[in-house]
Amino acid sequence: MADTDTGAPPKVVLVTASLLVAALAVAVAVVALTKSSSGQPDPNQPLALVSVPAPQAGSPDCAKLIAGVPATLTSNGKELSPRTLAEPAPKATVAWGEPDPVVLRCGLERPPELTPTAQLRVVNKVQWLQIEQGGSATWYAVDRPVYLALTVPESAGTGPLQAVSDAIAAKLPVKPLKF
User: Fold this and answer.
1) pLDDT digits over 50-73, tens only?
2) DSSP conformation letters of the chain
3) Mean pLDDT, the chain, as a whole number?
4) Which CATH architecture has domain 60-171?
5) Would you kindly state where each structural domain of the chain is located, as residue ranges?
């Protein structure tokens, strides 16, 4: 229904449209301000991790290892700071860096890929089974009293694997492989 003198829409329609545009502008501004300027996750936000079966996560071996891992890791010359994990945080799990964190989990079940013919790599006296995943790799330490998994983004370099290997070698004794 147009104003008969000017052909313009009624004032009610114009005011409503103006309010909707203003509300949309405010919503866009709020979203923009709550996201970091780089479009990356906020490193101050706790890192949410999916829980995985870890029947030995509460073991003394995991407690000893987690207490002995480095406070920071170095990845391609960049220092990775520890991340706070969102609650409920998985037991015996630590993470470093952002936006793609390095995550160490202790006390996991034996990886099904560990077979007598599996290709293992030794890094700083620790035997690892590498499982590639899109954009990252999970390395399973398979020669200790508990199974450990270190998930690293493909861009991480070898620094995190070497530092965690040193901590594992220092804190946990070597055990024969079990298939």
Assistant:
1) 999 999 999 999 999 999 999 999
2) ---TTT-PPPHHHHHHHHHHHHHHHHHHHHHHHHS-TTSSPPTTSPBP------TTTTSHHHHHHHHHS-SSEEETTEEEPB-PBPSSPPTTEEEE-SSS-EEEEEEEPPPTT--TT--EEEETTEEEEEEEETTEEEEEE-SSSSEEEEEEETTS-SHHHHHHHHHHHHHS-------
3) 85
4) 3-Layer(aba) Sandwich (3.40)
5) 1-34, 60-171
